[in-house]
Design goal:
With 301 residues, the chain is of the alpha+beta class. The protein contains nine helices and ten strands. It catalyses: Hydrolysis of DNA containing ring-opened 7-methylguanine residues, releasing 2,6-diamino-4-hydroxy-5-(N-methyl)formamidopyrimidine.
């Protein structure tokens, strides 16, 4: 799933290619992906793209129409992606109900006046891509309820401290909670916890002021580094760039590079859940003790 750094890069990529262009048409390929019905997607036709912005992990294409500004807002979820073309196919998009195919399904096509444009596609059997056409992004409850942006100056150490004490929970869960901190997901929370040297199971109520400051610094450092890596890359390269930049996430069994870039001699461990997994280093994060993996424990009985 794309997180803050990749979504920021996608916003830059789309803004550069769409701003100032007129929307020729919007064609719906997957009815299931469209979460709103009024305004209709074709209300965007004839409007001019004025900006592309990010809200957490949501992308917002701002279109000035003759009647009012509209927003094409979408969340790519786990299997969604943006596919740009300088010359889109002229064949009409055939609507579908989404289906159960694992292959990429065309959910939405946006054509511009110069023949270019982009497709929103989704792969996998669980279709969670969400597309909204709204007058105000705040009409979307999940956008309106987003927490603080982690790279905003307003996200201070004191603000993080307040979030840590609001509810005593595992710190991994807080980092992934979009209502608390917007834009961090499963992958970058793993990276942040390695760099800050905390167990993903550490309870937020146990953080000292020094530990809070350490976590705050790691959040900024990891996301800033990832944004720099993603910046300027075309959409088709962002997934590979994200994978290549990971220290522990997705690297189970590989040598740990160390929280400070000095290999610690341990290997990356994994804890599996029903729909995701997390990776960590016992030496760097949990005092050398592996965390229990309930799924693996069941297999070993």
């Amino acid at each position: 799933m794309p997180e803050l750094p990749e979504v920021a890069a996608l916003a830059d990529f789309l803004r550069e290619r769409t701003s100032g262009h007129t929307v020729r048409s919007v064609e719906v390929g997957s009815i299931a992906a469209l979460k709103t019905f009024s305004p209709a997607p074709d209300a965007l036709a004839g409007g001019t793209v004025t900006d592309v912005v990010r809200h957490g992990k949501w992308l917002d294409v701002v279109v000035a129409t003759a009647d009012e500004p509209l927003h094409l807002v979408f969340h790519l979820s786990r299997g969604g992606w943006v596919r740009w073309s300088d010359s889109l196919s002229t064949k009409p998009v055939r609507p579908s109900l989404g289906g159960s195919s694992r292959g990429a399904v065309l959910a939405l096509r946006v054509r511009l006046d110069d023949g270019g444009g982009f497709d929103l596609t989704e792969a996998g059997t669980r279709k969670r891509l969400a597309v909204h056409v709204v007058r105000d992004p705040a009409e979307i409850e999940m956008v309106a309820s987003l927490g603080v942006e982690p790279l905003d100056p307003a996200f201070t150490t004191d603000v993080l401290g307040e979030l840590l004490t609001r509810k005593n929970q595992q710190v991994k869960g807080l980092l992934r909670d979009q209502r608390a901190i917007a834009g961090i997901g499963n992958a970058y929370s793993d990276e942040i916890l390695l760099v800050s040297r905390f167990s993903p199971y550490k309870l937020t109520g146990s953080f000292t002021p020094e530990e809070t400051a350490r976590l705050h610094t790691a959040i900024g450092d990891v996301l800033t580094e990832a944004i720099a890596t993603a910046s300027g890359k075309p959409a088709k390269e962002l997934k590979d760039a994200k994978r290549a930049g990971m220290r522990v996430h997705g690297r189970t069994g590989e040598p740990c590079p160390g929280w400070n870039g000095v290999p610690c001699g341990d290997t990356v461990h994994e804890v599996s859940f029903a729909d995701r997994s997390m990776q960590y280093c016992p030496t760097c994060q949990t005092g050398g003790k592996p965390l229990a993996d309930r799924r693996m424990s069941k297999l070993l009985r």
